[in-house]
TrEMBL record:
Keywords: Membrane, Transmembrane, Transmembrane helix. InterPro entries: PepSY (IPR025711), PepSY-ass_TM (IPR005625). It comes from the Bacteria. The lineage of its organism: Bacteria, Bacillati, Bacillota, Bacilli, Bacillales. Residues 143-201 form the PepSY domain. The chain crosses the membrane at residues 12-31, 62-80, 232-253, 276-300. This is Iron-regulated membrane protein.
Length: 315
């Protein structure tokens, strides 16, 4: 994410989607089967050592934090390139995203079909990124000043903080938008740069049910849905995830033999393998990047790595 760009975005998305698979399959493997004791299941055993201790430090916190981790991951997916675009397409196809347009006067404003709000402004709500941008009609006149547009924002009761994006070209519009406060304050307005007419006005109440849910989820993800408590919960989940990763590394280190990679043995129960396989297959169909990565790993493992003798000695 620090590097930026499409490639970095896809790596972040791939890691997030694989985290969902690891979480779901991990819970399935962990799920108690004919085990009466709560120790090592929902409470860690502090009187044990070695790999068993690290197993408890991995499985027990992962169980308690699983729902919160899943929420953090899922609420971040709308920002991703591939899954995010699928979510937007779903919202459009089911009419549960933003309305086709929302205007405050007369007839529907004309709009260039290829120009979307995300093409002319950056600081906008997720739900209105694909909102069509209308055009300013009264060309040849002097454009409004920023002070005039700021007055319009206050008149239209757009809550601060908001951003005013300058028009692009003679037919461009001023865009007033806010997405950094409470979800209910979300607003995206397109204003004629000459007359000050509000050509398009979309608020949180105009969103469809899916767009509203995602908007609330984004606020939860960013830690601004219910203030400091939201941020504290996010911090606990983040620290918990770091702890889960450290404990998994320690389990691997305790398991691996000298000169080996420490790949785990196949489960004794073949039903476990089949269930995990179908979970991965299902997630791969829903999340395209995961599906592609599974195919790549399978091809490398089956047809490339298996043919290289030195690598086989490491398993």
């Amino acid at each position: 994410m620090l590097i930026g760009g499409a490639l970095a975005n896809r790596f972040v998305e791939l890691a997030a989607c694989w985290a969902v698979i690891l979480l779901v399959t991990g819970l399935y493997i962990w799920w108690p089967r004919n085990k009466a004791s709560i120790w090592g299941t929902i409470l860690p055993r502090f009187n044990v050592k070695g790999r068993t201790f690290w197993r408890d430090m991995h499985a027990v916190p992962a169980f308690w934090l699983s729902l919160f981790i899943l929420i953090v991951i899922v609420t971040g997916l709308p920002w991703t390139d591939v899954m995010g675009e699928q979510i937007k397409n779903l919202a459009s196809a089911t009419n549960t995203g933003y309305p086709p347009y929302a205007h405050s006067f007369a007839e529907k404003p004309e709009s260039a079909s290829v120009i979307r709000t995300k093409d002319v402004a950056e600081d906008i709500p997720w739900a209105t990124e694909n909102l069509p941008v209308p055009v300013s009609r009264a060309t040849g006149y002097l454009p409004l000043s920023l002070e005039d547009v700021d007055y319009i924002a206050q008149r239209e009761q757009v809550n601060k903080p908001y951003t005013i994006t300058l028009p692009q070209g003679e037919t461009g519009v001023y865009t007033i938008s806010t997405s950094h406060s409470k979800p209910g304050d979300n607003a995206t307005l397109h204003v004629d740069q000459y007359t000050g007419a509000v050509l398009s006005d979309v608020r949180f109440d105009d969103y469809g049910i899916l767009a509203k849910g995602i908007t609330v989820g984004i606020a939860l993800h960013e830690g601004r849905l219910f203030g400091l408590l939201n941020q504290i919960i996010g911090l606990i989940v983040c620290l918990g995830m770091i702890g889960i990763m450290i404990s998994s590394i320690m389990m691997w280190w305790k398991r691996k033999q000298e000169g080996k990679l420490g790949a785990p043995a196949k489960p004794k129960d073949p039903r476990v393998t089949r269930t995990v396989f179908f979970i991965m297959l299902g997630k791969g169909l829903i999340m395209p990047l995961v599906g592609i990565s599974i195919l790549v790993v399978f091809i490398l493992d089956r047809f490339v790595l298996s043919k290289i003798s030195p690598i086989q000695k490491w398993w």
